[in-house]
Structures are given as structure tokens and as C-alpha cells.
Write a structure and sequence with these properties.
The protein is elongated and about 105 Å long. With 751 residues, it is an all-alpha fold. Keywords: Lipoprotein, Myristate.
Length: 751
């Protein structure tokens, strides 16, 4: 995966902030110590930023004036077998096998170059002074539109376009967030900031902006995202709720603000002119009886649904920030040890419980964003944005040419996250699966509100299939959407499969192999690798079940494929015998878990070989050749009560073709001569010679608790692909991924 797509690395935050003498109450210190494990004192004066002092008539004159100096700163398969009717993939925590996906989380400590206070300069001096004042113990009146207008409308905050940017934002605001969490109970400044964010969001939604997004709208949303992330990563559910909801008495229930009178329209709605020069809270935000968290979620979803992100650069940035904050709000889950602790996921529960009406429209919009793959429009041409770009040029390139557009990628990640949530006990989270299930092909007969281009989606998936998030999307579509599954299976113009160099495939060069044969080779390789390393029953059963389903129709097996299939039987049979003999010597139960698992594997491989021989013997002479070549492998199981019938069919085939070769009376026959004899004898193979068994048909079923695997997996994708810094010490749902990487790193060092 290109480094440009990796998130900020999993690095322990360095001690950026040196403690200084401050006057901080004991209460503030205790709160800060509770939410911050970082090695520095939680005080807002840790960062020494000079401010200009003035004695003008404003109470906040030192804040309003610019500073004089710069800042130097799982799933399982239901498998029914005639020989193993009880053979199922037993449930276990997939998180216990983090390496089975060979997933690389992307912890690259060298990726962060700026680590010290003097190197990190994400905010300008003016912006940092404003943030210090916002987080301080001084209350900024909700009705002081001048102060809020200067804070949110003077300078646009930079966007985070790299892992370094994400790290810089985290480090530049962590001490401020400590202060903010402590002081907000008294000042309610965060609650007022949230009210301004909701007001600006209504402005964006209701006016259907076709021009530039106001700087106030972007800045307020950016600040809510930054500080919400700190709160979510360090506070309990009740404390997060308190930060967002605060004291409901901080605002008077009046439609008069700073002398600006409101009016009532014909629909009895309070109307007020949101003059950008005087930033005013929308009265409807105050009068809304819903919680502020629910209002924020409602606003975010409506922006995602209604706003066209490619109108200009500002709409693209604002839309991207909406997706970012949505991921941040849902990130309560990343801090939980597992995906089943639903009660602690404050915002996720609000979304899944209260916004069922948005499911279909949101699913379609996110999928459409992914399909369109629209990059950011050219830089804005407005005077304000041009001036900002001139004074504060881009801090880093957003993406490399090979990277997917940010909105497309984040839309996909949001969709995946919502679609893999817990389906029990009340099934409410299953609704986003139903949204995927409701998608229809725009070229089909049905039509409706959920139509998308299956052709465009299919082609995009084919182009990006090596990406793991694309594979997961394909999985969800194939599992949930029958119409899309039929579309894929009915394609008459499959793409030519071009296989690039694969270092793991070293045995020999295959110049011509069927797709079924190649699938067999890959699955056999996965099984063998799994047997030697992870020993995950999930892989055994599902890979063999796939091979069994193919075995009913596979033909013209490549010689090498036939050899690998017989060798697979040799491997599992030897391990089965070894485990069984060991159990007998030690006086243990021969039906132990390990012996039973390998017994199931032996049975499945024999069933696959039988399936090919019974239904496609004439079309697969190379498999017969391999069986003759390794005929001694099967003699040990002729009397085994579980395998006897399966072995009898194979012995029957071996005996018949061995007799035909012997009748030819060839001296030192070559491989080509033996192959010709096998092909000739196959034409006269008498039907009914082999005992018929029921067709092997394995059907995949997903467990209700599949989120125990999928949720950590999706969060690992989000961790790797979004420019949001996540501290590995707090991302508890990813612990197994992190531990696995550390183990692999240590093993490499030992070697």
C-alpha cells in the first residue's frame, strides 16, 4: 500500500509540552490527569504564546487583536457433508487470529518527521491565541457575535492532508483539549461552539449554496471535530454526553440576539438574518428539543445527502470534513475492547436508533460517491480563499496521483463501518445491510430511488480489487444484494485475467491454466500456509468448501493443479495419522479437537477428489495420472471406517487405469505415453463403476456475531486510510492487530 495512503503512524506522543509555573486549581488538575496519560502537566500555559495587550473598550480586547510575534511551535460456513454431517466451522473469536488476513496496520514511526514543539506549526499565532481563549476559564457569551465572528471567520483553519498533518493537529491541541474538558462545565464554550456549528450547518443545508462555503462553517466544524476526538478518546460515555449537552440554561429562550430582531414566517418558524459579519446562533437550533448530539448527527447526514462536493474547493473540503467528523463521532467503538459493548457507543447508538429513515438514501449516496471517484475541484477562485492560499500555502500534498479521491474513500469506509455493526439483539444495526440489499441496477427493469449503475460499480471493483476495503464491499454486495450477485455471475464478457509476478508462487511457470485451476492453486496455497502458521479452522473449511463446489464442474485440470491436490491430501493425511498415533501413545482421546479437525480435512479432500472422479473423470486425465503416481498414499486408509467408501472409489479408478497401462506392455514408458493411454482408457470408462454420493454443495452463512471480526477489521482500514491520528495505546479494538505486528517485527529482528 503506498505510504501516502497510510494514516499517521502508531507512535507514542512525545513530551512536546514542557511544564511551567501556572495557577491551576486542584480540581482542574485532577480532571486533566484523568483524561490524559501523556507525560506533561495539563495546563494551558504550557505553550508560551505571547499576546498583544490593549485597553480598548471590549472585554476581550487581548483576544481580538492579532499577536505581535510568531509562534514557534467471524464468519463461519455451514458445511453439510454426507460423511461429516456435523462438520461445521466452530465459532471462535476471529480476533484471536489477527494474522489470518495478513493485514498490515501501517505503523510507520519514521513517517512522522516533525515531533518537537518548535517543528509543529499547524496553527498560526492568531489561531492558537484564539483556541487558547476558547479553552480557557473565561466564558464567551453565546450572544457576543463579534467575538465568535472573529474567532470563526478571521482565518480558515488548514485542512489535514497527510499523516504528519494529523499528528500535528493532535499534538497542537491535546493540552488545549485537557483544559477545554475541565473548563467547559463552567464556561459552556464548547456547547456554544456546537450551537454555531449547527447554525452554520443549517445555513449550508437550507440555502442550497452554489458558491463558497463560509469560512465560519468550515472552521466551526473543524474545531468540533478536533476537540470531539480528544473527548471521545479520553472520557467516559456520561462525560462525553455532559460535554455535548452541557447546561440547558446557558441560552435564554428568546428570539432576540444582540439587538437583531427575529421574525416569524408563514410556517411559524423563527427567521433571522445570519449575517456573516455578526455570527448569530440560529433560534431554531436553540428551540430544537432534541439533544445536541442528535442534532449534529442530523446535520451531518443532511449535508452528506444534499451538498454537491464538487461545486468548488470549499464545498469539497467541507464535505470531506463532514465525513471526517462522522468517523470521529463513531470512533467510540475503536476505544472499546470489542464490538459487542454497544452501550458505550454514544453517537453510534444515536445514528442506528434514530435515523432509520436515512438508511436507504445514505447508502445510495455513499455508494454513489464511491462510484463517481471525483477528485477535488481546482482551487477556489474567491478573493477570500485566494488570499488565504497566498498567505498560507498548502502544508502538504493531499494525495499522490495513485490515491483514490478522499471523499470517495471516506464514503466507502463510512458505509463499511455502518454495514458491519452488530445485528443483535434488536436488529436495528442491520438496516444498513438492508440498504445495500435495496440497491438496484439503473439499467434494469425495476427502477426506483435506489438505482445505481451496476456496470460502473462492477468495473470499479475489478480495477481496485487488490484493495482490502474493495474486497469487503464486494463481499457485502455478493452476500446481501441478490440482483448484483446475478449481474456478476451473468457477465458474458469477463476480463482477461493478467497475473502479475507473485513472489510466493515459485514452483513453476504456468503458461496456460483455467480459472478454476488457478483458483484451486491459490486456495491450496492458502490452506498450506494456514496449516503451517495460523492453524485457523475458518480458512480450512471455507477454502475446501469452495474447492468442493468447483469440483462438480471443473474439467481439464492442469497437471500441476492435479499434483497439488493430491499433495494436499498427503499433507493433511500425514498430520492426521501423526496426531492420532500421538494420542494413542499418550492414552488420550482419539476424538480430541486436533484429531477431529484433521479428520474432517482428510474427509473433505477425499470428497473433493471423489466429486471430480464421479462427475468429470473423462475430462480430467491429469488427476488420474497424479493418483496413479501417488497410489500408495491411499492404502493406509482403506480400512478406516470413516474413509473406507471414499477410498474404495479412488482405488477402483487406480486399479482400472493401472490395468489398462499394464495391458499396453510398454517398456519404460514416458509421461506422454502414459497420458495417452489414460486418455484412451477414459473414453471407455464404464459408467456406474463408482459409487455415487450426493453432490457437494456448501452454502456460506454469516453468523450473527460476525461483527467481532468485521468491526476491528474495518477500524483497521479506517486507521490506515484516513488522515486522523489515532493513538495505538487507546485503540483497544485494534490490540490484536498491533500485538501481531509487534510479534512479526520481533521475529524478523531475531532472524
Amino acid at each position: 500500500m503506498p505510504k501516502s495512503r497510510q494514516s499517521a503512524p502508531l507512535a507514542q506522543p512525545p513530551p512536546l509540552y514542557q511544564t511551567s509555573q501556572t495557577q491551576t486549581s486542584n480540581q482542574s488538575l485532577s480532571i486533566a490527569q484523568q483524561i490524559s496519560p501523556l507525560p506533561f502537566s495539563p495546563t494551558h500555559q504550557s505553550r508560551k504564546v505571547p499576546r498583544s495587550l490593549d485597553t480598548s473598550n471590549s472585554d476581550f480586547s487581548e483576544f481580538l487583536l492579532p499577536p505581535q510575534t510568531g509562534l514557534s511551535s467471524p464468519t463461519t460456513s455451514t458445511i453439510q457433508s454426507p460423511f461429516s454431517p456435523g462438520l461445521t466451522s466452530p465459532y471462535f473469536s476471529r480476533r484471536s487470529y489477527p494474522g489470518t488476513s495478513n493485514f498490515i496496520l501501517g505503523s510507520q514511526r519514521a513517517f512522522i518527521q516533525r515531533k518537537t514543539l518548535t517543528e509543529i506549526q499547524f496553527f498560526t499565532n492568531t489561531q492558537y491565541n484564539q483556541l487558547k481563549f476558547l479553552c480557557s476559564s473565561r466564558t464567551i457569551s453565546p450572544y457576543d457575535s463579534e467575538v465568535w465572528g472573529v474567532m470563526l471567520g478571521s482565518e480558515k483553519f488548514p485542512t489535514t492532508n497527510s499523516g504528519q498533518d494529523a499528528y500535528d493537529v493532535e499534538m497542537a491541541t491535546v493540552s488545549l483539549a485537557i483544559e477545554f474538558a475541565s473548563n467547559n462545565k463552567k464556561t459552556a464554550n464548547f456547547n456554544t461552539l456546537l450551537l454555531h456549528t449547527l447554525s452554520q450547518m443549517r445555513r449550508v443545508i437550507d440555502s442550497e449554496i452554489h458558491g463558497e462555503i463560509p469560512i465560519e462553517a468550515y472552521n466551526s466544524l473543524f474545531l468540533v471535530r478536533v476537540f470531539s476526538k480528544h473527548f471521545i478518546g479520553n472520557l467516559s460515555r456520561d462525560e462525553i454526553n455532559q460535554q455535548f449537552e452541557g447546561d440547558h440554561t446557558i441560552l435564554a429562550d428568546t428570539p432576540k440576539f444582540n439587538g437583531v430582531e427575529s421574525k416569524i414566517d408563514e410556517n411559524n418558524r423563527v427567521q433571522i438574518d445570519l449575517n456573516p459579519k455578526k455570527l448569530i446562533i440560529d433560534p431554531e437550533v436553540i428551540q430544537d428539543t432534541r439533544s445536541k448530539a442528535e442534532q449534529l448527527m442530523d446535520g451531518l447526514l443532511k449535508v452528506i445527502l444534499k451538498l454537491d462536493p464538487i461545486l468548488n474547493g470549499s464545498t469539497y473540503e467541507y464535505y470531506q470534513e463532514c465525513l471526517n467528523i462522522l468517523l470521529v463521532l463513531l470512533s467510540t467503538q475503536i476505544h472499546q475492547p470489542n464490538a459487542s459493548q454497544l452501550e458505550n457507543n454514544y453517537f453510534l447508538n444515536i445514528l442506528l436508533t434514530n435515523f432509520g429513515d436515512f438508511v436507504n438514501s445514505l447508502t445510495k449516496r455513499l455508494v454513489t460517491n464511491f462510484i463517481e471517484q471525483k477528485p477535488s475541484p481546482p482551487a477556489s477562485t474567491s478573493v477570500v480563499y485566494n488570499a488565504y492560499s497566498y498567505l498560507f500555502p498548502s502544508r502538504s500534498s493531499a494525495t499522490l496521483p495513485s490515491d483514490p479521491p478522499p471523499i470517495s474513500e471516506r464514503s466507502l469506509l463510512v458505509l463499511l463501518l455502518l454495514s458491519v455493526q452488530c445485528r443483535a439483539p434488536d436488529e436495528k444495526a442491520k438496516s444498513f445491510r438492508e440498504g445495500i440489499r435495496s440497491l438496484k441496477d439503473a439499467q434494469g427493469m425495476g427502477g426506483g430511488d435506489m438505482t445505481i449503475s451496476f456496470r460502473a460499480l462492477y468495473q470499479l471493483i475489478c480495477r481496485q480489487l487488490p484493495n482490502e476495503e474493495i474486497c469487503l464491499l464486494l463481499y457485502l454486495l455478493m452476500i446481501e444484494n441478490e440482483e448484483f450477485r446475478v449481474y456478476v455471475l451473468s457477465r458474458l464478457d469477463p476480463e482477461i485475467l493478467s497475473i502479475s509476478y507473485q513472489p510466493w508462487f515459485t514452483e513453476r511457470l504456468l503458461k496456460s491454466v483455467s480459472l478454476g485451476g488457478l483458483t484451486y492453486l491459490v486456495l491450496i496455497r492458502v490452506i498450506q500456509f494456514n496449516l503451517s502458521s495460523h492453524r485457523d479452522v475458518y480458512f480450512h473449511n471455507n477454502c475446501l468448501a469452495t474447492m468442493a463446489n468447483l469440483g462438480n464442474s471443473i474439467q481439464d485440470i492442469h497437471p500441476y493443479v492435479a499434483q497439488r491436490l493430491v499433495n494436499l491430501f498427503d499433507i493433511v493425511a500425514k498430520r492426521y495419522q501423526k496426531l492420532r498415533e500421538k494420542a494413542q501413545k499418550q492414552g488420550e482421546d482419539e476424538n480430541s479437537d486436533a484429531v477431529a479437525i484433521y479428520g474432517d480435512l482428510v474427509c473433505l479432500v477425499l470428497e473433493i477428489i471423489n466429486s471430480v472422479l464421479i462427475r468429470r473423470l473423462n475430462s480430467n486425465p491429469e488427476l488420474i495420472y497424479s493418483l496413479l503416481h501417488k497410489k500408495d498414499l491411499f492404502t493406509h486408509f482403506q480400512l478406516h471406517p470413516r474413509f473406507a467408501e471414499l477410498i474404495a472409489n479412488i482405488d477402483n479408478v487406480i486399479s482400472y487405469f493401472h490395468a489398462r497401462i499394464s495391458e499396453a506392455n510398454l517398456k519404460s514408458p514416458s509421461a506422454e505415453e502414459i497420458s495417452e493411454l489414460i486418455e484412451t482408457a477414459a473414453r471407455t470408462w464404464p459408467p456406474g463403476r463408482l459409487k455415487e454420493f450426493p453432490d457437494l454443495k456448501f452454502q456460506y452463512e454469516e453468523e450473527l456475531e460476525s461483527q467481532e471480526f468485521f468491526c476491528p477489521y474495518v477500524w483497521a482500514l479506517i486507521y490506515r486510510h484516513t488522515w486522523i491520528y489515532w493513538d495505538e495505546n487507546k485503540t483497544h479494538i485494534l490490540n490484536d492487530y498491533i500485538i501481531h505486528e509487534e510479534m512479526e517485527a520481533s521475529s524478523v529482528q531475531v532472524v
